Amino acid sequence: MLKHLPAACALLPRCLLTSSPRTFSRSSRLLGRMEAAVVRCLPGEPKLTISFCLEDSQKHMLRDQNEALGKVLTRISNTIAKNQAKAKKSKKKLDQQPSEAAETAVVKLFFKGDEVPDTLPNCEAWQDGAVLQVGEVQYNVQRNAPTFTTAELPVSLMAGFPVCPKLQVEFGNLQDCEYMWFKENSTNTSPKDSPAPEGGWTQVGCERVLVPSNQDIGCRLKLRCTPKDGSRTGQAKELVSVATVEAGPGVCTFDNRHAYTLRAAAWPALRVVSYNILADVYAQTDLSKTVLYPYCAPYALQLDYRQNLVKKELAGYNADIICLQEVDKGVFVDSLTPALDAFGLDGVFRLKEKQHEGLATFYCRSKFRLLSRHDIMLSEALTSDPLHSELLEKLSANSGLKDRILQRSTALQVSVLQDLGNPERKVCVANTHLYWHPKGGNVRLVQMGVALQHLSQVIADVAPGAPLVFCGDLNSSPGSGVVQLLSEAAVPPQHADWSSSGPEESCCMPLSSTFPPLQSACGQPAYTNYVGGFHGCLDYIFIQPQSMQVEQVIPLPSHQEVTTHKALPSVAHPSDHIALVCDLLWN
């Protein structure tokens, strides 16, 4: 009889093919809109999970992988029986005539039309494409289907600024996933040139990142995202924003700079960014609000507001390598990583010891692969690595300075990247944020001495001949000992920075770099930090001129742009520092 049935019916479980005409007809209709039973089963894990919707209730079952299938099917059947018993009691309480006793629901699992034996262990029974029959309802079993494990929208939404959802997918690829954005209709009618509204929502985008327009102000946003891995598709999720889209600040300090970075750098150039983005732990202190940045509107110091600006600024640079300082751990995980991942960058984070902020380095994954990491805490390396024994011995003559240096939690982030176009070509990217105190020049000199020795050793061991790109907030002016050490490869014992903290902590000694003189790729701007009581050049990108050349430096904002709102940060600029951006050429 089977050969005379339509081809589609040949795939149905055999029990359905022998059911009564009424049952077969209903089952066929249900198969046309079959729901999913999602099974997560990984080798090496003792449990598997089975998730499906039963009688308008989502069920999540955690079972042993080696348990017999029959036990799971019995559990599902018993659950249905309990629900029916509760329904009967409810009817009695309402003085209603109870219905006839319902038959025990048939719960079976089929694979390729054959019933799966009850004795088979769960890990073998629940195959992708199997059909779970619960009474007259069938579920398509999706084993290890693409699934969103994290799906969140940012709290703050602003017109003209990218909305980057935080997404993590298991058994899938975010680049393969499908995205549909909607805005909530403010009235019952939608604009004539917009797609047809869907239940009070109008579609406004179909990319992973949405940039709301001024027409979206006052509306909530909804994202329907479908996890995929190639042609495999999982269950879609819908996310609705908590807040509505707000108006943006208008022109920002970085908008004109983006005119120079509309396109990504092409080989043999690479674009590098170094930026202290002002950690929230510092922006929200009473000192910051009343003394450091009293000119900045309180809302413009809020993290959500500033992150909108930071994400738009960084995305607009189309950079290959981004080194950030003062990155809150939560900002890295919840904001920067989802946003920059959507723009093609992967990142690594180094938290400062006993701090809530640290360093982050992002790199373009279509151009580079992270070969290795060699992060250190400078004070710890000074005392534990024999490489620095000579420097430590000289410091020991001044216990006050030595103790001061060892109390610092300053970190050096080191990432060795491999060029995907030519695996023999590598680059060593260093990122740091040196000690901040105005009288800490001697501390910073020692920190830089440790950093350069460590970097020299890393390159020699891991990537011989690889060029160094050294980024960071060095808290050092162009005339400082640190900048002289980098640009001239040596600092004499009589340099003023050795006595920067007073005669009791003076340590006059020669200090040499392990590298030939380095070049400041962005030169020496008048300032990279501009606050009410100070402005000066503190941030740098140093390169080895023997290995790399500067193709272009992206102009910094004009003085008028910086001072429009008196100083930084402001409603138009998210940090008290200015990003350095340059294009470098491989020699």
From TrEMBL:
Q: What GO CC terms are in its UniProt record?
A: mitochondrial matrix
Its family remark reads: Belongs to the CCR4/nocturin family.
**From its record, what is one biological process in GO terms?**
mRNA processing
This protein's name = 2',5'-phosphodiesterase 12
Which Gene Ontology terms cover its molecular function?
metal ion binding; poly(A)-specific ribonuclease activity
- Organism in which the protein naturally occurs: Xiphophorus maculatus (Southern platyfish)
Query: What are the residue boundaries of the 2',5'-phosphodiesterase 12-like N-terminal domain, all occurrences included?
Result: 146-246
Domain (Endonuclease/exonuclease/phosphatase) spans 274-577
State whether keyword Aminoacyl-tRNA synthetase applies.
no
One Pfam annotation reads Exo_endo_phos
Gene3D superfamilies from the entry?
Endonuclease/exonuclease/phosphatase
Q: Which UniProt key words apply to this protein?
A: Exonuclease, Hydrolase, Magnesium, Metal-binding, Mitochondrion, mRNA processing, Nuclease, Phosphoprotein, Transit peptide
Q: Which cofactor does it need?
A: Mg(2+)
Q: Sorted alphabetically, which InterPro entries does this protein's record hold?
A: CCR4/nocturin_mRNA_transcr (IPR050410), Endo/exonu/phosph_ase_sf (IPR036691), Endo/exonuclease/phosphatase (IPR005135), PDE12-like_N (IPR048821)
Where does this polypeptide localize?
A: Mitochondrion matrix
